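Sample pair:
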Amino acid sequence: MKKNFRNGLKIGLISLSLCCFSPSVYAEDKKPPAIPPWVYKQLSKAERFIGQQKYSKARLKLQKILADVDKNSYEQAITLRSLASVYALENQYLKAASTLEQALATGALTEVQQQEALLNLGQLYMATEQYQKAIDKLEPWLKKHPDTKEKQVRILLANAYAQLKQYRKALPYIEYVIKHSQKPRENWLQMNLVLYYELEEYSDAARILRRLIAMNPEKKEYWQQLAAIYQQIQQYANALTIKHLTYKKGFLTTESEILQLFNLFLYKKQPYQGALLLSQELATQHVKQTSANWESLASAWTSAREYKKAINALEKASALNHKGDLYLQLGRIHVEQELWQAAITAINKAIKKGSLKQTGEAYILLGMSYYEAGQLKSAEKAFKHASRYRKTKKSAQQWLKYIEVNEVG
């Protein structure tokens, strides 16, 4: 961006230098003082060197003129101004700014020339990251030309204030440019967006992002930023809509991006849509087939009351996990579904893998499953194991008494 600005600055200073000899420039200005023929001739040669991109020759020619003209004369002022343009073309912006300051200090330039020089000096300060100096030159210039249609001055001021982190002061300048443009440029809207971000005015930032998406619907980052903003301002339904549209456009390609959308579905109590998304992405392996991801899918299918699909996902999660807790969770689902033999298989696997957080509960569920399956001896054995744990001791003893009574009966 800075490179483009500097290229534009070069063009501006070339035109400024050349206008020294253009009568049309002075249409609304007093007639400039007459230039001695020898000065005019030497300046013309310097301008030809500039046109031929022979900047060192132009610089030497202009420096020679300066040595022979009177101090604070009109000739000195316009020569310094031309020299400033050469320095700018040579990327010597600090020298260009200093030289243009000298030209203004002579007090010899006409009003129009002085205003043009002030504008260019402000641009040079921007190029050399002297942002406060740029503001000090450009703001007075703009106040003197309030009706100007020159957008670049306001954009420079917006940039200068933004660089100084004075975002509130930057905002009206870029907003003015956008408002008074039939087709605002994308980079203007981007600057406006950054300012709203910095000021934490997220609703306005969302509005700008919607314009940017309309302007460039294939730019992935705009969709992502809009979804993030909606989440920031807790408009989760809008965030989900935008995120889902982003997914449909093929912009969500990483595992983290897909899982963020999945979690948004869950948050908005749409577990079926979330489970459908995750199952598709697991199948295509855009999401890794890890125990955690299969467990997330199982949880979503369970919330959606799709128990068979939940069981299938949880079986895959359990097989990939080195601990037994997932098999225990699978066992619980089988118990809820009264699939006793499947529950027995899952819970036994859980106990075998070990590292259970609730071992006593595992034995209680195992005992219940054995009992319902008519395997009383195995049930009794399971409840005896459960009675060894403090939290399940009372429940296990009750079951053992119940089995004993029923066996006697």
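Residues 1-129 form a domain with the Serine Threonine Protein Phosphatase 5, Tetratricopeptide repeat fold (CATH 1.25.40).
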